[in-house]
Amino acid sequence: MTSNSVLAAVDDDAAPLTHQQLRELYTLMAAVRHLDTAAVAWQRQGIIPGYAPQLGQEAAQVGSGYAVDRRRDFVFPTYREMGVARAMKLDMVGYMSTHKATWHGGMYNPVEARFAPIQAVVAGSVLHAVGWAHGQSLSGKPAGERGVALTYFGDGASSQGDVHEAMNFAAVMKAPVVFFIQNNGWAISVPTERQVAGGSVAARAAGYGIPALRIDGNDVVAVHEATRSALAHCRAGNGPVVIEAMTYRRGPHSTADDPGRYRTLDEERLDAGEDPLERFKQRLLDDGVADEAFFAEAERLAREEEEAVRSGIEDLGPRPGAEMFSLVFQEPTPALQSQHAAWREESEHA
Ligand SMILES: Cc1ncc(C[n+]2csc(CCOP(=O)(O)OP(=O)(O)O)c2C)c(N)n1
Ligand SMILES: [Mg+2]
Fold it and tell me: Is the pTM of this model over 0.90?
């Protein structure tokens, strides 16, 4: 049964996480921390042109991504969900190819991966998720067998009109969608308190009659449990859920950003709170779930993976330019066909 009282009491097989699962969560978070830190370095080294780090958001991302049922659910990410991708076992060279500008949205198969193309349009993923979720309602599958859409967005995105339309539509249509907000304190240089009226994104859900959970987004177990309950609630046909995971963007908005222009190091240290990775490590040690040898091995695996992803993206060659046109629509529109023809002419000149 779900443990969270604002959600319908549905059977979600919510046994506590086993020691093995807790260790797996840590291994994932360590891998994500390494890949993320490495990706910033790769940008500085000229291996990739740009990247949006998720440093400090590992618990929010891994805890939620780990709850997804990859046989039937579907995730709609923003540009910052590397940790969710990793927790869902995506091919990370394919994922990182977006940041190498090799291909739009990642060179993985979204349908097989259950992870939509990376989305740079703020709040864009939210609309797609509600559409997909409504499709599940129309699919004719019995409620318990439907997939659930899990859409990620930020505190800044929550100020977009799209989010309100999406929430209203989802609530009216009882679409199986979890709105997962990572409130990381910032929308580039604008702090949450300067653009989220009322101070809470979760509180807005009440206006749409949607149950909401405001959780400690730096506690991977709390995030996992909340997401699992929310998915079960949606799957049982009870309509959408809002989760606001309170966290902190420890790094820059992107590799093109300099946070020193809008926050001091002291503010950063004070507001960031405890590092989610260190915090989880301490908990596993205190509870006797893992020992130092385990953490050393997690570190070794993370380094090995980081190396493999780096050489994978270094080896990526350019994709045929014509894919810009051929991979957009099943049947290209006349406008796209003429753009394709103009592009071919120009590139043949070059
Ligand atoms: C529709 C749209 N408007 C503006 C931008 C420029 N932009 C990119 S990220 C961003 C801030 C988003 O903040 P938030 O939703 O809190 O997500 P975070 O970056 O903190 O993960 C803005 C304004 C954009 N990409 N798309
Ligand atoms: Mg934000």
Answer: yes
Pairing of strands 190-191, 241-246: unpaired
**Residue 150: strand pairing partners:** 75, 178
Taking CA atoms, 262 is separated from 107, 153, 267, in Å, by: 35, 22, 10
Rounded Cα distance between 65 and 87, Å, is 5
- Cα–Cα distance measured from residue 58 to residue 54, given in angstroms and rounded to the nearest whole number: 7
Q: Are residues 31 and 54 in the same domain?
A: yes
169 with 240, same domain: the answer is yes
Confidence band for 328, pLDDT divided at 50, 70 and 90:
confident
Average pLDDT rounded to a whole number, residues 246-264: 97
| Cα-to-centroid distance, 185 and ligand 2 (Å) | 6
CA distance 35 to 137: 37
Best of 122, 190, 254 for a ligand 1 pocket test (most atoms within 8 Å of beta carbon): 122
Q: Which atom of ligand 1 is nearest to the CA of 157?
A: 15
**Could you tell me the distance, in angstroms and rounded to a whole number, from the CA of residue 325 to the centre of ligand 2?**
33
Please say whether the beta carbons of 95 and 81 come within 8 A: no
Q: Which residues hold their Cβ within 5 A of ligand 2, which is an ion?
A: 154-156, 184, 186-187
Q: Cβ(156) to ligand 1 under 6 A?
A: yes
Residues 315 and 325 in one domain: no
Q: In this structure, are 310 and 328 located in the same domain?
A: no
**Residue range(s) defining the domain that contains residue 240:** 19-319
* Structural domain total, the chain: 2
CA dist 58 → 16, 39, 192 (Å): 20, 15, 20
Residue 80 has pLDDT above 50, yes or no: yes
Let me know whether 226 and 240 are in one domain.
Answer: yes
Of 81, 125, 162, 188, the one to substitute when testing ligand 1's pocket (max ligand atoms within 8 A of C-beta) is: 188
